[in-house]
Amino acid sequence: MALIPTTILTGFLGAGKTTLLNRILQEDHGMRIAVIENEFGQENIDNEILVQDSNEHIIEMNNGCICCTVRGDLIVGLTELARKRDAGLLAFDRVVIETTGLANPGPVAQTFFVDEEVGSHYMLDAIITVVDARHAMKQLDEYEEAQRQVGFADKLLLSKTDLVSEEDVAALTRRLKRINPRAPVAKVDFGRAPLAEVLDIRGFNLNEKLELDPDFLETETAHVHDHDKAHEHAHEHSDACATDCGHADHHHAQHSDDIAAFVFKSTQPFDSAKLDEFLGGLVQVYGPRMLRYKGVLLMQGAERKVVFQGVHQLMGSDLGAKWGENEVRGSKMVFIGKNLPKDIFIRGLEQCLV
Length: 354
Hints:
By secondary structure, the protein is an alpha/beta fold.
């Protein structure tokens, strides 16, 4: 049987995750979606989405959706859903997992790689992070969890944009792109988002047909360079500008996020043995701080691209498409993490080139 595509929905407290989920559950879209409320406490926070009877574990909705509360072990909950599906007791085509507002999405994502039973039934489609446009700047300043949720995202959905100015939205978007340049940003209005914005994002898959868009890192590199230039520009003008100088970034230049991204690019091929050894060492030392990393690699003597990605210490790779005859061959890698030593990563990767 085909693997069950699964979406992790995360975002800080009050961002609008439950509002978005309610719309998914209530819409007559013809999809059979199992929604898992991943709670670790004794009480369910988002009571409006689930029935009040704590003894009820799984609820079937009128439109074919299923709602399930998992307190504690997510592996047990996912395995139980899969068992009931295989036995014909439940019918669903995909899963959406909503994390709590203060959750680090990393352990939830790792569940799909560390447990053989879960891996044999489910495929992690993407991590979607809902960002509260009105409060995100302050949350990102004060809470590492908020930064991590942005850093892990395959897609970012901005909520409450009607409550702030276009300038504020633009400044927040720039900051989000600095933290995670690989995640597209879209707006969501009172939970109204096309299902195509939430499901089948295919941001976390390694197989060939879902290979990374070959241009996705070109955009990231541009974003990184643009930010560097803007940062230098802000410093050049810091002495000359008054507080009301009109520079849009002047106020926000002071924000310093622990979570940040950088890109490595090279047209030289990698020595596979050297690269394996170096990356293995990186994840052992810096794995807990490496939120997400992803790339397309040019390996010596290989006619196919190698697609690689990981979460913390869990790293995987797969063969991608063949290099095109007229295609410029090269490696493009992006690393997103907390206070990662960019120079060590870049120098080490350069030493793995042929």
